Amino acid sequence: MLTVAPLxxxxxxxxxxxxxxxxxxxxxGVDDGILATLAMKKRRVRIGLGTIFGRYIGDAGARExxxxxxxxxxxxxxxxxxxxxxxxxxxxxx
Length: 94
What we know:
Order of helices and strands: EHEEHHHH
Helix content: 40-55%
Number of helices: 5
Largest sheet: 3 strands, mixed
Shape: globular
């Protein structure tokens, strides 16, 4: 999980991709990493999936997890709980 306060002019997508290239989450040489990025001030969440998980979750599944589990945290104030639920759903789906 990557949490950032200001994004500046950079989009959450470009920041997340840059972090994934640097950190290389997952198993070496397998492309099975997942990186969830939270931009606090912009109230944005992004889930980046390695190609292995893209087969099971896909972009639509990741968007559904973000919309149902994670972004309601900004309105309810339960940031830790909602993000944890979203991460748990990711692990279940994977």
